[in-house]
Structure formats: structure tokens, C-alpha cells
Amino acid sequence: MTDIQFPEGYIPSKIQARDCAPGESDAEILDLCKVSWDPEAPVGVISYESLRPWLLERAEHNEMLFRAGKYRNWWDVFDWQKVFDASQGSSPSCAGFAFNRARLIRLMNQILEGSEQFIEKENAGILWALSKGSVFGGQTLQAMAMAGRMTGSFPVSKTGEYSARTAFLSYQNLANRFDSSRKYQTACASLPESFDPAEEIELACRAGCGVFVGNLKSVESFQLRNGRFEPEITRGGAHATAFGGYDFERSQCAWWNSWGPIYSTNLPAFGGPMSRASIETFMDSGYRDVMIVPYAEAPLDPDLTPTLDPEAHDAG
Fold first, then answer.
1. Tens-place pLDDT, residues 103-118
2. Rounded to 10 degrees, what is the CA torsion of 258, 263, 269, 275?
3. pLDDT at residue 314 greater than cutoff 50
4. What's the Cα-to-Cα distance from 60 to each of 38, 65, 71, 201, rounded to whole Å?
5. Does 90 score more than 90 pLDDT?
6. Which of 64, 153, 251, 316 is the most exposed place for a label (fewest CB within 10 A)?
């Protein structure tokens, strides 16, 4: 396996580290930036060990909401076609798409949890291209996490829609036209190898977080078995996808691809549900990386009526 090169799509962190000098790989650089999770100051590169207790609390809270009949998934509230591009097209931008899906899923869940932030489609290609300095070849998930933390994301209302045919110089020009991307930063936590990926992906989904992963597996279709859709998983090329959303009734996570609206399940057509067992099969791969998104920054919704009197607030 170590002799396989990954010129397109997702680049496994171990392969990238093999080709770097000690201390210069994306994973090592990301680890140097880690801080403890603080919900009051959430944007950063987060230590997963410090994040996990909060995930457990959020997962328990969401299960309580479900039992009370008050839990909602983002696809029941938001129009996915207005939030996501279904396909990355012919560009090797899957790492950018996976990051974008995980980020926006967390943002939508934050809004459902009471945040007054604004959700809009973002151009997944810009941050991906800027993180690389090109539009050729793949990218590590760690590099996407660092770019999401430092550079921020780019709404299509300011930069235009994604196109797989966009050249790097055009991406640079689009980014230069929008100088407020830092208002769209994202917090990420890299999952250490000592944790079971299926268990932690399920926990993050139950907690309302987004997850972006890289591995060497593909989902060809979904089949209905005993009242639940489950994926047909095969060995595939290096690819990055996302998870986000949880069906408490069926005990399934929601998985999201970037190959277009090609699936037929009870979920939006660019993905489908996976049980813990299916996630274990999916993540049992020669290479795998897992990044969890606990917070997505975005401006406040301009259409909401302020709930505080600014003068009274200042006086207090």
C-alpha cells in the first residue's frame, strides 16, 4: 500500500507525511496548533480529548429532545439544493467538498439549536484551491482544517457559484473580491488513532456536529433491508466525504458524497444513512482520516429582529 500514489482527491495524512521532512507534514503542523475546547471561544484547532465530554453532553441532550418529540434534522428544515452543490464534477476537489458539507451541516444545526446565524451556499472550490495553491491533485483533510481555521469560507453571494472548470487564478481573483472570509471560520478536531472511528463518528453525528473523512472506500448504492436503507460499500480510490445528522429512531448516521444526486433513500439524494456496522466497514480502509467540526462561524441573520436593546445592553 505504501507505494501507491494519490494524485487525485483525498491525500492520506500518512502518505503526505512520508514525503515531508520531519515536522513539516500537515498533520504535524495541525497538532502544534491544538487548544482545549472552549464553547465560549469555539473557533480553533481543537484537541479531541478535550472536545469529547462536550460531544457526550450534546448527544445526550439531542436524544432527550428526540424522546420529547422535539428533535429535528437539518434536511427536514433546510432546502439542501439551496445550501449544497451536489457534485464536485471533474475537479479533484473532494476534500474541499467534504469540508464544506461538514461545516455547513454544523452551521445548520447551530441555527436549529438557537443560533441567530445566517446560512447560505458557499463556493467549496475556493478554500480548497487556496489551501493548495493550485487546482491540480488532491489535498489532505488536515490542510483543509487549517485553511478553514485561518482563511475562512466564501459565500457564493460574494464570489459566484462553484465550477469544476475554474482555474486557480480565477479562484484567487474571486477570493480577493471578498475580504471578509475570516467571518466564516471553522473549528476542527482531528480524531486520534487511539479512538474507534465508527464510534466517534456516530457520537459526533448524535451531538449535531459535522464530520469529514478520507478513506479508500466507495458507496455504489443503498439497499432497503429490514426497514432500513444500508450502503453497498466497495473498495475504491482515495476519496473524501462527510457525515452529519442522526436518525435516533433507526440508529443511523447520515453520510454525504459529492458525486451528484445519485442515491435513492429516505434522505437527500447526494447521500444516505449508515448504521454503526456500516460505518465500521466504510472506515476499515488502508488509509483513513477523520475530522470533526464542533463550530462553524457565520454572520448573524440580517432578517432577524434584534432581541436586545443595544442602549440598555451598553448601559448594563
1. 999 999 999 999 999 9
2. -90
3. no
4. 19, 9, 12, 15
5. yes
6. 316
Output b/e per residue, 65-102; b: 16+ Cβ within 10 A: ebeeeebebbbeebebeebbbbbbbebbbbbbbbbbbb
Taking all residues of the chain, what is their mean pLDDT, rounded to a whole number?
Answer: 93
N-term to C-term CA, the chain: 63
Alpha helix positions (H), the chain: 13-18, 26-32, 48-67, 80-83, 94-112, 124-132, 141-150, 156-159, 168-176, 197-206, 276-283, 310-315
Query: Quick check: 215 and 282 in contact, CB under 8 A?
Result: yes
- The one-letter amino acid at 167: A
Output the nine-digit C-alpha cell for 287: 488509509
pLDDT digits (tens, 9 = 90+) for 219-246: 999 999 999 999 999 999 999 999 999 9
Whether residue 114 contacts residue 297, with contact meaning beta carbons closer than 8 Å, is answered with: no
* Per-residue model confidence (pLDDT) at position 75: 97
Number of H helices, E strands in the chain: 12, 7
